[in-house]
Request: fold
Amino acid sequence: MSSEKKPDCGRRNLVFATAAVGGVATVATAVPFLASMAPSERAKAAGAPVEADISKLAPGEMMRVEWRGKPVWIIHRTKEMLEALGKIAEKVSDAGSKRPMQPEYARNEARSIKPEYLVVVGICTHLGCSPTDKFKTGAESGINADWPGGFLCPCHGSLFDLAGRVYKNMPAPDNLEVPPHYYLSDTRILIGEDKKA
Reply:
């Protein structure tokens, strides 16, 4: 008679079956749990880039879109509006857009990719108010007789030009923010992403 015991195949099969069922149950429990920790579709959409159709935006007009809960303005500047930017460079605090309030490709006098279109976040850099557009020039604007057009923050009186550059000695410390963006075509802009992203 042999002293070695024969392996109990039934017990071994039961251990393997139990381990397999336990593994499947663990995966079945973990997948929904981990999925619940991922950002919701609504949260993803809130931070997603926004596409804007500018095909109907006439010169001198502004349209608004929302990106990440912020108002983004797109202004179709006229030739006169663009000419005014150079004339008031000495009146704004950051004429060359040296401060990091725009992507590198918008670091110019017009603060834009295409000079005729300004894309800017419509939130004052002082306390987060929303400036109003004051595109009428001169005394008709209600600001100054030499006003060339731009934006006025009604909360504390900060003035911005038509490139979103803040005038000197205003409560707002910086220019309006230019969000990352690029042109999908001549009439469509994607806001919230640039080609390098």
Remarks:
- Strands lie at 50-53, 62-67, 70-76, 117-121, 132-134, 150-152, 159-160, 181-185, 188-191.
- Residues 61 and 76 are 6 Å apart (CA to CA).
- The two ends are 76 Å apart (CA to CA).
